[in-house]
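Predict the structure of GTP cyclohydrolase-2.
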Amino acid sequence: MIKLYSKAKLPTLAGDFEIYTFTNDENKEHAALVRGQIDGRNDIPVRIHSECLTGDVFGSKRCDCRDQLLRSMVYLGKQEYGMLIYLRQEGRGIGLLDKIKAYSLQEQGYDTVEANLRLGLPADKRDYTFAVEVLNYFHITSIKLMTNNPSKIDFLEGNGIRISERIPVKSEPTPYDEFYLDTKRVKMGHQI
Ligand SMILES: Nc1nc2c(ncn2[C@@H]2O[C@H](COP(=O)(O)OP(=O)(O)OP(=O)(O)O)[C@@H](O)[C@H]2O)c(=O)[nH]1
Ligand SMILES: [Zn+2]
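Done. Here is the predicted structure for GTP cyclohydrolase-2.
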């Protein structure tokens, strides 16, 4: 169960948000960026973003994470109501240390899925329970989810959150992430 820990105003390059932090069973420093008075307000746009230090912070070209994060924030910054939930589950949940190991295997020709499996780790180890609990905290039962990932939709729908609409999150492919995006589409079912 989560419990509100702290909140404060957070003006950003993409607009004004409020940042909420919660204590949680995993003891992870997840956060939610909120726009407007969203309590009990259904069908607001929500982005659930998984941490990518290399992309989100350093601007790595190996993935489209930063592009998706910035585009989501710019979109949300223009809405009256909305939320971005930022989950600290780096590397699809395997953590930064093993993600970089997986990158090194990808340099030997494995794709993003094969590299995880070769390390004896699941292709995707993520869990969206915290996001469901944040939505419950705000008494929201139905959202417009900003994603291309069908398994995220399945998880939320399996946990009491209706997805009334899917808002695609586009990113501009580059020569560096073409193969990665292709693998996401072919092996992980992403609608890109
Ligand atoms: N293990 C591993 N993780 C990666 C790799 N590239 C990106 N990631 C992680 O993948 C996560 C983002 O997942 P994506 O598949 O890009 O997007 P998504 O959240 O599933 O789907 P969208 O909602 O459509 O963005 C972040 O946690 C990144 O750190 C990689 O090659 N290996
Ligand atoms: Zn990334």
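Residues 3-89+126-188 form a domain with the Rossmann fold fold (CATH 3.40.50.10990).
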